[in-house]
Design a protein that fits this description.
It contains four helices and four strands, in the order αααββαββ. It is an alpha+beta fold. The protein has a domain of 86 residues: 2-Layer Sandwich (Gyrase A, domain 2). It is elongated.
Amino acid sequence: MRRLARPVPLDFVAQVHRAPLAGAALGLAGVAAAITLGLAFDRALAERNRLDAALAATTQPRHAPPGPESLRSAAEVATIERELGVPWTRLLAELEAASHDTAGKVSLLQVEPDPGKQLVRITAEVRTLPDALAYLRRLQASEVLRHPMLESHERRKDDPQHPLRIKLSAEWRT
């Protein structure tokens, strides 16, 4: 005889256990904590909005017509910006190369570029006039300068070596 398997009791409806008193108290404490945190967050958010509004009120730009002083400073800023935007590197590199090509016989004293007029004025000292003319010829061969000219030359008698101070001018190709 063959034995049948033992029946498995299936209970589709389980007994409902009531929550103990401690569990209910813990649940109520959690709900109370969540409500307290929500209220604190709402107060902090309202305070932040109030401070943002106060900050915005203090930093509102005041639109006043520009006065002569602000117009003058704007013109100065524009002039400085124009001067800083000029490509100085090529000009200074060319003047330095010309000085080296003349074997150091030329001492540059002053370089006055005028970007608005595309002009540069150079003041230098040399020992002799042929050195000055050689420097001038070297600058005339430059691609950066156009039409370099000797404006003046003067023998410095107050210096014991009596150098020749020359002033040159040229158009400057930017």
